[in-house]
Amino acid sequence: MRLARWCSAFVVAWSAQASARPDDTSVSSLLGARDFINTTGLSSFVGWDPHSFFLNGSRIFLQSGEMHPWRLPVPSLWKDVLEKFKAAGLNAVSIYTHWALMNPKKGVVDLEGINDLQLFLDAAREVGIFVIARPGPYINAETTGGGVPGHVLTLPDRNTWFPYNGELRSNDTLFEEAWKDYVTAVGTIIAKNQVTNGGPVILLQIENEYYNGPGISEYFAQLTKTYRDLGVVIPTMDNDPGMFRNLINDVNIYGIDAYPVSACPPPPVRCVMNKRRTGFDCSNPLVWRDTPSPAWRPYHESVNPESPFFFPEFQGGSFDKWGSVRREGCHQLTGVNFQRVYYHQLWASGVTAVNFYMVFGGTNWGQLPYPPAVTSYDYSAAISESRQLIDKYGELKLQSMFLRSFPDFRKTNFISTFQSAATPIGINTTHLRNPDTGAEWFISRHQVTNDSTLQFRLDVGQGTTVPQAGGSITLAGRDSIVTSVNLKFGAHSRLVYSTAALFSNLVIDGTDVLVVYGAVGQTFEVALAALRNPNVASTGPTTLTTKFANNAIILNFTPAAGMTIVRINGVATTPMLLVIADYDTATRFWMPTIPSPVGGPLSNFVDLGAQTPVLVAGPYLVRTASLQGGRLALAGDLDSTTRLVILAPKHVTTITWNGALVHGSIRSRFGILEAVLPGPRKTWTLPDLTKATWRFADSLPEISPLFGEEAQEASGMVDANKTTTTNPFPPYYGGPAVLYGSDYGFHSGNLVWRGRFEHDDSLSIPTAVNLSISGGQFFAASVWLNDVYLGATDTTVMTANLSLPVTSGMLRTGDNYVTIVCCTPGGRQRDIQLPRGIQGYYLVGRPTEAQFTSWKVAGNFKGEDFPDKTRKILNEGGLFGERMGWHLPGYNNVAWEKRTPWLGISAPGVGWFRTTFNLSIPNDHDVPLAFEFAAQPGQYRGAPQLYVNGWQMGKRIANQGPQITFPVHPGILDMHGTNTVAVSLWALGDQPADLKIPSLQLVQLASFSGGPGRIPTNNPGWEELRGSL
């Protein structure tokens, strides 16, 4: 027992029902000892034992999904995504907060707009979903610098044990001073919104994916003390990046991360178990590693058996990298079969707390991504980047509803993993049992991953092998199934066994309802306890055979497409209703919550008393429900004309959908309400951008000899004249100026450098310009001597050395300038202090005294003092067009040349294109839109560097790919007015394909009636942000 983590314990009664009040009185008043619950010692509202977490005395299965509010930069849409989380049966959402966005400059903390943590937590509380807060400070998250602000990256290096981070992420005083403002601000909000105060926050993560090392435990202690001093009383947690035994005793709850599949090379090449090497490469999605790790349970039992087995991050998909295959491969790799095989194996391993990374990925808009990541952070997640529900959402919901509906599964003991005589070679079955109720589960999967389909019968104990009434259990390739045994459902009924998957159970008008599903064409069997042979009647497409034996009614069936209702009466106990669905139909089942009658700020949380008294089938999405008297009010979305089916109490006589009365509803003899809902209606047309009027301007005046001091200063260029740096990666050569962007307050996005040297007849002609440029993986750089293009680097390495030949005809008498455009696509991550800029420079063939005499640099407009407080510090880069505000709505480009992006530019350089268009989408429709570029390759970048109403919503590297489609949300798009689109074309090559964008279109991804309603825009324009220029 680790006393540092077992701070306090108390006892709850097995049968007690905890209230929904955000205090501890219900816990302390419980009688009849059964479960010893560990707590922080500061509050008993959130507790835990070796099996699971508790909330206010109630045992829960923590089923969470990850989203990052800052990757959906429209706060009005956060609730939309949270409603989809809850509708999927999740009871929690895990979030990172982004230090660099919230603390862009030393002494400045910004918690407004897309940084409004309080607004997000209010939405979570309103929806009724708990929050796992993960504020870092370092967050990884495939974001620039792992979320560490640029101004912190300039701290001096005094820590030698970890060369990539220097003193960052250590207990060094300078680093503590750097994070103090941010952690204090975020921690204050977290403390205020703890579940103990009526808020949604139940867990707080300390740092992120860190390792044992000198000063790290002390660093964790600094962070923990800061939070505790602010009033945080909920448990702290961490996420070891693997089974590495890191920092086990430094938090209340230790957890591990796992990303168990990555696409592997075709056999016989062996997979490398390292996600940074082979992980997230979806080019071979049909090749899996053999099995989920059998080491999970023994590892957990060896390191922290007194706590629930918790995965703070478990693979929910896979992100796209530059140069990778397109998203379809990742979706296939981590699809519904992956979900069943690996998520079921979590259950088999005793996991009762898991957070799927990601459930909604969002967008790496602006400069958010770390270098290898593309703009899309769709992650092949259950909810797509465009907020659509994909097939993985349906599987996630089926699993989550099972976990939410059957509390016996929250406490199980491992019995065995076996291959019984009735089970063919190649199938492993894990047997679990609840020690208190006797409920049992048998989780079966292939021993070695393959595509073969096997059929078998399963020994479930007591001399029973199932199915009993004919047929076999079918286990398809790359799949897993769960057989449930001896399980209570409804108020008084008992499931003897089911080879069909369980969705949920409920009680309607004194009838116990069990909902099951299975694949079309496979045989399933459900046995229900009955004292005598009952009357069985059914309606629907599935045909059943029945058999009464051993005080059970056995129902054997092969699901047909659709829903079948089976009424079972005369069992000498409570009447029962069995709902049978095929898999696809079950994915359209919904059980929206009704707030607890107890009331209070937590009344809408399922684990704290919210009710689920109805089953709804058919709609694309059911967001919310309310039940007042005989009126059931449903809100949701439809993707087509839909048959609405509702199991509800008899007193429900009226149904509304999105506020409108549903006419023609009929209640069948089985008590089912049915109606037809009309689908979305298309009353709009999208603009054809190929026919729009485009305007063009050159965005690289820096190479002109006329671009003098006054123009440089007016455009935001500053002197790059520092001769020392605190960066732990020193310059290679050259000098005296240090040319690192962060040393001048420019931390992300494109940088433009301009170096000056003298030339006359008395000086030797340099033979080359030699440069060592660092910009992160997949960066590029272009170089000009005066207005002559010298060449470019376009590489997958983080630093490139160039030696670019110079001839006498390129030189001028007097001042000469070398101009360098560099450094997209992103920032840094683990090697977070790696400089972005020029690590070495000199003129080959020139003596030391005849080298560069001065340098200028430009980054995002005004650097850390950026004026755009809505879109924040990471939206813009340092191209001339960005600094001048050409991406902003309202800029007057009437004097620009009319030219389209598909005509392009005439030579390597940077061009800027703008147009406008109008939209008119009905408020009661949700219509995901995206900008789509042609897939043809070329050596160009930044076009798309796509700006929509001032927001940078996309980057495309034409010779790397794979992304060509860029979703843009309502709120950035004005769905009811005028929109401004700007694209920058940075051409590195001189071939026709390098100098133009073949096409750009606005496309509709889907349409739904319903949706989140009208979303307001907040898109400040040129006059507000650049009007003084």
From TrEMBL:
<dbReference type="GO" id="GO:0004565">
    <property type="term" value="F:beta-galactosidase activity"/>
</dbReference>
<dbReference type="InterPro" id="IPR019801">
    <property type="entry name" value="Glyco_hydro_35_CS"/>
</dbReference>
<dbReference type="InterPro" id="IPR025972">
    <property type="entry name" value="BetaGal_dom3"/>
</dbReference>
<dbReference type="Pfam" id="PF13364">
    <property type="entry name" value="BetaGal_ABD2"/>
</dbReference>
<keyword id="KW-0732">Signal</keyword>
<dbReference type="InterPro" id="IPR017853">
    <property type="entry name" value="GH"/>
</dbReference>
<keyword id="KW-0326">Glycosidase</keyword>
<feature type="domain" description="Beta-galactosidase">
    <location>
        <begin position="408"/>
        <end position="589"/>
    </location>
</feature>
<dbReference type="GO" id="GO:0005975">
    <property type="term" value="P:carbohydrate metabolic process"/>
</dbReference>
<keyword id="KW-0378">Hydrolase</keyword>
<comment type="similarity">
    <text>Belongs to the glycosyl hydrolase 35 family.</text>
</comment>
<keyword id="KW-0325">Glycoprotein</keyword>
<dbReference type="InterPro" id="IPR018954">
    <property type="entry name" value="Betagal_dom2"/>
</dbReference>
<dbReference type="InterPro" id="IPR025300">
    <property type="entry name" value="BetaGal_jelly_roll_dom"/>
</dbReference>
<dbReference type="InterPro" id="IPR037110">
    <property type="entry name" value="Betagal_dom2_sf"/>
</dbReference>
<dbReference type="InterPro" id="IPR031330">
    <property type="entry name" value="Gly_Hdrlase_35_cat"/>
</dbReference>
<feature type="signal peptide">
    <location>
        <begin position="1"/>
        <end position="20"/>
    </location>
</feature>
<dbReference type="Pfam" id="PF01301">
    <property type="entry name" value="Glyco_hydro_35"/>
</dbReference>
<dbReference type="InterPro" id="IPR008979">
    <property type="entry name" value="Galactose-bd-like_sf"/>
</dbReference>
<dbReference type="InterPro" id="IPR001944">
    <property type="entry name" value="Glycoside_Hdrlase_35"/>
</dbReference>
<dbReference type="InterPro" id="IPR036833">
    <property type="entry name" value="BetaGal_dom3_sf"/>
</dbReference>
<dbReference type="Pfam" id="PF10435">
    <property type="entry name" value="BetaGal_dom2"/>
</dbReference>
<dbReference type="Pfam" id="PF13363">
    <property type="entry name" value="BetaGal_dom3"/>
</dbReference>
<protein>
    <recommendedName>
        <fullName>Beta-galactosidase</fullName>
        <ecNumber>3.2.1.23</ecNumber>
    </recommendedName>
</protein>
